[in-house]
Amino acid sequence: MDIALSAGAAGAGTAPGEGMIGFENGERRTTTRLIDSDFVTYASWFPTEFSARAEVAVAPLLAAVKRVALVADRATPLRLAFSPGEVVLEAGSGEDAQAVEAITVDYEGDPLRVAFRPDYLMDGLAAVETDTAHLNFTAPTKPAVFTDVPARQGEKPSFRYLVQPLRLS
């Protein structure tokens, strides 16, 4: 494999080809260019204060989401209703297939109804590497943040997942 870096002209500021790199292997050639731009300030997307939090066992919640999501097509939201002690998962409506399941959670905050795309919910839960997770909410229409539960109180989570809820009609 050959790798080629562009060399800018001395004192020329931005020379043609500056910030480019090329890769060649056999008959395949790829060239890419570094774009001079600011990266997204993603940290500002994560809320810092929450109005509600659920602490859940990841495996039972993920299993329940998978079961309830079986009746939800791609455009159908999976609805979650949080209240002290439980979350009720629902999918489907009307004459379509319907599924409802409740599981135990440790929930702090006012009762909350929120909806997510099932695949986004499963992706976030599947990435948590601890047995329990925190699901943090600000409002039903604002992004939610899923985190692992640190081993020691006061430590920062090592995993954060930002997910945008769907609007309920």
What does this structure look like?
The chain folds into 2 domains: 32 residues, no CATH class; 118 residues, DNA Polymerase III, Chain A, domain 2 (Roll), CATH 3.10.150.10. Helix content is 13%, strand content 37%. It has 2 helices and 12 strands, in the order ββββαβββββαβββ. A hairpin with a 6-residue loop joins β10 and β11.
Number of domains: 2
Mean pLDDT over the residues:
87
Number of strands: 12
Going by CATH, the homologous superfamily of the largest domain would be DNA Polymerase III, subunit A, domain 2
Poorly predicted regions are none
Name the descriptors:
169 residues, mainly beta, five-stranded antiparallel sheet, four-stranded antiparallel sheet, 37% strand, elongated
Outline:
The chain is mainly beta. The protein has helices at about 60-70, 120-125; strands at about 1-5, 20-25, 30-35, 50-55, 80-85, 85-90, 100-105, 105-110, 110-115, 130-135, 145-150, 160-165.
